[in-house]
Amino acid sequence: MNPILDEIMKERERQDVKWGGPDHDDGHHLVDFLGFMNERMERASRGFETRVMIENIALAVAALESFDRKYNAQMGGCEVNEHSPDCLVENKEKI
After folding, report:
1. What is the pLDDT of residues 28-62, one digit of tens each?
2. How far apart are CA 58 and CA 89, in angstroms?
3. Residues 6 or more apart from 11 whose CB is under 8 A from it?
4. What is the mean pLDDT of residues 7-24?
5. Band of pLDDT at residue 68, cut at 50, 70 and 90
6. CA-to-CA distance for 2 and 18, rounded, in angstroms?
7. How confident is the model at residue 92 (pLDDT cuts 50, 70, 90)?
8. Which of 2, 5, 64, 93 has the most CB atoms around its CB within 10 Å?
9. CB neighbours (10 Å) of residue 88?
């Protein structure tokens, strides 16, 4: 795997250990994740910091993972790569 992607996945694992994983993440909405990312960017605004970028990308992955779990629960099994119009039409009555 790409070394940068490795770092992002390590950061995701670190975040899960620190904050409690999916149960914690699923208690947040997208706007919460955007706020967390914005806070980190403000702290790094004095210059480019690779670590902050990795943290933010890992937070974005957490947001997508949480969205996928919530979407699956509502849609009855569609996965993130199945958010096609066919999947939405097939399951529209379930939400």
Report:
1. 988 899 999 888 888 776 666 888 889 899 999 99
2. 31
3. 54, 55, 57, 58
4. 93
5. confident
6. 24
7. very low
8. 64
9. 13
Domain parsing of the chain, residue ranges: 3-94
Tokens of 47: 């210059």
Q: CA nearest 19: which of 49, 82, 63?
A: 63
For residue 95, give both structure tokens.
């939400």
Residue 32 tokens read as 């919460």
Question: Residues 38-54, buried b or exposed e (16+ Cβ, 10 A)?
Answer: eebeeebeeeeeeebbb
Here the tokens at position 21 are: 């994983």
pLDDT given for residue 78 in this prediction: 58
